[in-house]
């Protein structure tokens, strides 16, 4: 399975994997990850 980028909609944490975490390791919110493309993930990482 190809890995994808996921962004937490609460704190903007970026995760790279097969699926987004059930609980964000940064803000501890549940089920808040959405899939984003590589370009959006890079923009978020550069601006945080």
Q: Can you give keywords for this protein?
A:
single chain; 48 residues; alpha+beta; Rubrerythrin, domain 2; three-stranded antiparallel β-sheet; 1 helix; 3 strands; 27% strand
Mean pLDDT: 96
- What would the principal axes of the Cα set say about the shape? flat
- Helix and strand composition category: alpha+beta
Annotated CATH topology: Rubrerythrin, domain 2
Spans of at least 5 consecutive residues whose pLDDT stays below 50 are none
Number of strands: 3
CATH class: Mainly Beta
Rg, alpha carbons? 10 Å
- What's the helix-strand series? EEEH
Task: Assign a percent range to the helix content.
Answer: 10-25%
CATH architecture: Single Sheet
Range of strand content? 25-35%
Number of domains as seen in the coordinates = 1
Terminal Cα span: 29 Å
Strand order of the largest sheet: 2-1-3
Biggest β-sheet strands, sense, barrel: 3 strands, antiparallel
Could you give the topology of this structure?
Blueprint: E1 4-8, E2 14-17, E3 33-36, H1 38-47
Antiparallel strand pairs: 1-2, 1-3
Quick overview of this protein structure:
With 48 residues, the chain is an alpha+beta fold.
How would you describe the overall organization of this protein?
By secondary structure, the chain is an alpha+beta fold. The chain has one domain (4-47): Single Sheet (Rubrerythrin, domain 2), CATH 2.20.28. Helix content is 21%, strand content 27%. It has one helix at 38-47, and strands at 4-8, 14-17, 33-36. A 3-stranded antiparallel sheet has the order 2-1-3. Strand 1 and strand 2 (14-17) form a beta hairpin. The N and C termini lie far apart (29 Å).
